Amino acid sequence: MAPAVRANKAVWQDTFGVKGEIRDRAATNDDELGDHKVLVKVEAWAINPCDYMLQDRNMGFAYPVVLGCDVAGTVEAVTPGSSAAAKFKVGDRVFGMTANNGFQDYVAVEDRLISKIPDGMAFREPVVLGLCVATSALFLFGEDYLNLSYPKIGAPKKGKSVLVWGGSSAVGSNAIQLTTAAGYDVIATCSKNNFDYVKGLGAVAVFDYKDPDVTEKLAAELDKGECAGILMAAGLKDGNLAAWKVAAASKQKLKFASSSYIDNMDEVPKNVDVKQLAPANFKPMPDCWFEMKEATFEGYLPEALAKGVYKIAPPPLVISKKGLEAVQEGIDLQRIIGEKGQAGIKEVIGRVKGANAGDKVSPVKLVIERA
């Protein structure tokens, strides 16, 4: 029997600094999936901060490319007898991530980077988790980074703390939950407006990152016991600088990992143990994510979601426009959030919901549904 031929559209990025264009793209054929790929018919896409950055900046891609990482949908095809077929079957509802290539109708995804969606959970909910869960897990549990113990249901308390700088960000929201589930006490930073949100994710202590005395206050908090490390989850270069100041002020020699590459290593204080690979030693995508699958898509995450002990964070903000036609709108709205921060979230919520967001707004992640 000839393999199925599916009409597929994608949002093409023809070069940097321009908007995406919807055009045809040949879908991956069933006989091209191999041992570890699953073809997913996408029902929801989530927008990440990196999506607008990759659209705006010259990243050296061989254009045209298809951007987008977070997807949720239904398994359309899997190779019979493959490793993927041992875990997934046609019709399964799944969520997960791909290293770009997500903004299209049909996506071939690594079976180690997707999980089944619990019954009763809509596609729009877990689609927000993919990239930010994988990113936080890489820097928290990767052997080249903080190398913490993996999360598990009922993990005993370690009696150690971990600082998550940028706790209300997408990466931070998931880092707090994963680290807490591994038995560590999470101390986090965010704006005052987000204290309740971050505490609700499991942080035992929260500090205002804008407090002029935050460095000394955090160092004193960490030095009340043993600190297992610091993760800079959000803040780019400024976040790195602020977070490693805390590490330098501690009486302990602390491990430090960042979701934003540190290109000014000569400025890092000598008593900070930075865990970062040289570019030549980076593990390629998607292979770099596979090491943490026990903490993410093939271990703790689906179990915790099914048992209702893992929160969908940041919560989805669904754009009213549907399908791939809404992707560029989502990227533009994410750019507003990226450039304006808290004020941008308030503006975007107002635009999407058509109403005033009020004075107090919590973090959100933009989501587009197929229909």
Automatic annotation (TrEMBL):
Pfam entry (one): ADH_N
Keywords: Oxidoreductase
SUPFAM superfamilies cross-referenced by the UniProt entry: GroES-like, NAD(P)-binding Rossmann-fold domains
InterPro entries, A to Z: ADH-like_N (IPR013154), ER (IPR020843), GroES-like_sf (IPR011032), NAD(P)-bd_dom_sf (IPR036291), Trans-enoyl_RdTase-like (IPR047122)
Gene3D superfamilies the UniProt entry points to: Medium-chain alcohol dehydrogenases, catalytic domain (3.90.180.10), NAD(P)-binding Rossmann-like Domain (3.40.50.720)
Domain Enoyl reductase (ER): 20-371
GO MF entries: oxidoreductase activity, acting on NAD(P)H
UniProt family annotation: Belongs to the zinc-containing alcohol dehydrogenase family.
Protein's name in the database: Chaperonin 10-like protein
Species, as recorded: Podospora didyma
